[in-house]
Structure formats: C-alpha cells, structure tokens
Design goal:
Elements lengths: L2 H24 L6 H8 L3 H4 L6 H10 L3 H12 L4 H16 L3 H8 L7 H11 L12 H5 L3 H11 L8 H23 L7 H24 L1
Helix pairs in contact: 1-2, 1-4, 4-7, 5-6, 6-10, 6-12, 10-11, 11-12
C-alpha cells in the first residue's frame, strides 16, 4: 500500500473512531462535524476532504455498532433446516438487534445518503477488512449488500431449490417483510408508540411469520 493510501486510511479511521465515541457518549442525534473535528484533533472542514457528507461519516461509524448482529447471524441461520426457515431466522436476528439500536439501523438501512451505498460498503470493508474475518461464503454476500430488500431476498431465492416458489411471490413477500420492518422502525423512532425494543421485535416477527406461513405450509405438504 502506497504511503498516501496509508495516510488517507489513517485519517478516515481517526474521524470514524471519533464519531463512534460521540455516538456512544451523546447519541447519534447529537453528532456534529464540529464535535467530530474537535474529538479527532482537526477542524470540522477537514472532514470534508475525506467524506462528501456528514451522513457518510455517520454511516461508517454506524457500521462499527453492528458487530454483535453480524456475529450472531450465522448462529440464527443454523437454526433453520430449510431456506424459508433460515430466512425467518435471519429476520429474527435482524429485528432483535435493530430495535435495540434503532437510530444506528436507520442510519444504515433507511437514511438518505445521497450516493450509492454499495460503494460506501466496499470502501468501509477496504478500511476495516478485519470485520470480515470468520464469516462464511454464505454470509459475506449479505455483509456487502447494503440494500435490505436485496440482501434479505437472497436467502429466499435459495428456497426455490427446495420447493416450487415463483419469482413474483418471492419478490412480493420479501418486499412486504421489509416494509413491515421499516414501518415498525419509523413508528419506534417517531415515538408514536411507547414500545420496548423486545416488544417491537416481537410484533414485527409475528407479522413476518404470519406472512411466511403459506410458504412454510407449502414445504410441509
């Protein structure tokens, strides 16, 4: 790696880690370029030499908070005997962690970043490549896919090997699962209902299981 690349990578890490510390101490909603600059030891304007927008830096920092989810995901997938069951289990893991840290997961999967997120994910893992250690080839494509709809659909598409499910059904069912999660996440963040994280996760999974039950029954017949 060239000296300039090493320097850029180090600067990116300075700003990301400063943002992580601020999120931990003050919450993601209180993060500002000024505070990040002060914490990292640079002016706030220096941030924009490395990140196009503040939301991009917050996105990178938010990725540091999903390690527990990524570490538990393989265990949840292993609980399923079929790909439909693995799909449901993957949602269980995702709901458990996302409703515990709603603002983090909103920043990663809902917030408008103004650019293609796949480029940002690839950039992130080029800096924090150690985050990929220990993950199987079954999991890695999900880590690299920042789009919740397509990453969740990947498992459901594999179910076509086990039972007769047409592509249109997969597309529709998967999109409805994502919309259920997004709706509950928006409700939680807007404080429209007073719900604990486990309650939000349980309700979301109840709706997803009900939606998936015809596919499970189809496998059983």
């Amino acid at each position: 790696m060239a000296r300039r690349e090493i320097q850029v990578k180090r600067m990116l890490q300075y700003f990301v880690e400063a943002t992580v510390e601020l999120i931990e101490e003050e919450g993601i909603e209180n993060v500002s370029a000024r505070k990040i600059g002060e914490r990292a030891g640079y002016t706030s304007s220096t941030i924009y030499n490395y990140f196009d927008e503040l939301s991009h830096l917050i996105y990178f920092a938010s990725m540091r908070f999903v390690k527990e989810y990524l570490q538990e995901l393989p265990d949840y997938l292993a609980r399923g005997n079929t790909y439909v069951e693995k799909y449901i289990s993957s949602w269980e893991c995702f709901c458990k962690h996302s409703f515990e840290k709603p603002q983090i997961y909103h920043a990663l999967y809902i917030a408008d970043l103004g650019k293609k997120t796949d480029e940002m994910v690839n950039h992130y893992f080029s800096i924090y490549s150690s985050d990929l250690i220990g993950f199987t080839d079954e999991i890695k494509p999900m880590l690299y896919d920042p789009d919740l709809t397509s990453r969740s659909k990947a498992l459901l598409e594999l179910a076509q090997k086990e039972q007769d499910i047409d592509a249109a059904t997969i597309e529709e069912v998967n999109e409805m699962c994502v919309l259920i999660w997004e709706g509950m996440m928006t409700t939680v963040l807007n404080k429209r209902r007073d719900m604990k994280p486990e309650e939000a996760a349980e309700k979301t999974m109840r709706y997803i299981r009900n939606l998936m039950s015809p596919l499970q029954e189809g496998r059983a017949r």
